[in-house]
Amino acid sequence: MTNNFENIVVTGASGAIGKAFINNLSKYQGVNKIYAFSRTKQTYYSSKVTSEVINYENENEIEDAAKLSSLKAKINLVLVANGILHNDVVYPEKKLEEISIQKFQEIFYVNTILPSLIAKHFIPCLSKEMAIMGFMSARVGSVSDNKLGGWYAYRSSKAALNMMIKNLSIEVGRRNKKAILVGLHPGTVDSNLSKPFQNNVPAEKLFSPETSVDHLLKVLFNLKLENTGKIYAWDGSEIEP
Length: 241
Ligand SMILES: NC(=O)c1ccc[n+]([C@@H]2O[C@H](COP(=O)([O-])OP(=O)(O)OC[C@H]3O[C@@H](n4cnc5c(N)ncnc54)[C@H](OP(=O)(O)O)[C@@H]3O)[C@@H](O)[C@H]2O)c1
Prior knowledge:
It is built from five helices and nine strands, in the order βαββαβαβαβββαβ. It has 241 residues and is an alpha/beta fold. It has a single domain (2-233), classed as NAD(P)-binding Rossmann-like Domain (Rossmann fold). It has a seven-stranded parallel sheet, with helices on both faces. Strands 7-8 form a two-stranded parallel sheet. Strand 1 (7-11), helix 1 and strand 2 (33-38) form a beta-alpha-beta unit. The radius of gyration is 17 Å and the shape is globular. The protein binds NADP nicotinamide-adenine-dinucleotide phosphate. NADP nicotinamide-adenine-dinucleotide phosphate is lined by residues 11-18, 38-40, 56, 81-84, 110, 114, 136, 138, 185-186, 188-189, 191-194.
């Protein structure tokens, strides 16, 4: 299956998970090219990887990124690894008084709107022979799995992303019968995103980005057409909406 992933795109390439995807995939012989998009210039050791700087807030740059990545060959694999849970001004809510317009706007923009725009421009550039688009979602975006509450904006943004993945998969099923769109839950992964929330995570449940990506690639390599529109955890189990 990996032999078919000749032309790959990763967005959110500076992130822990994005970078681990790139480093892992660049070792496969069948992989010819990886386009790594990030807001900042990155350095990679493999000559297969091209680092491209992008301003995601300008939709034209997303369109140009899709054109560039499919100039020589259609795309076989797109991994959308962007996401935020907190930043300098935004922190996940513990109680309803902490809900704010700013938090919702920033978190929805990165976690839901941006992946939707990436889908808009990259789906037409996918190979019609075999293509997968994997969006980094999160188990906490599952409505039925929500037992703890809190994290209003993040949970809602991932639930909305999951709806987008399902919704897009329906239209894509008509336009490109060989394309598979899925959401992925990487487990709890040691990264900037999870750093402030790692205290109560048992050591064996805190994955390195490399371990998480090893698991996720096994999931991706085993996908079948009937899996499109669904959300999968790192161990291959399906996460109900
Ligand atoms: N770590 C975990 O435990 C965990 C658990 C469940 C789900 N996830 C999901 O996995 C994905 C990757 O997380 P990670 O742990 O690798 O986090 P990370 O190391 O913080 O990387 C996130 C990446 O998102 C991009 N990003 C951040 N702010 C952005 C903005 N304002 N506009 C556009 N892009 C922005 C950046 O990439 P560029 O600037 O390079 O584009 C950044 O490197 C996220 O969607 C996250 O929700 C992570």
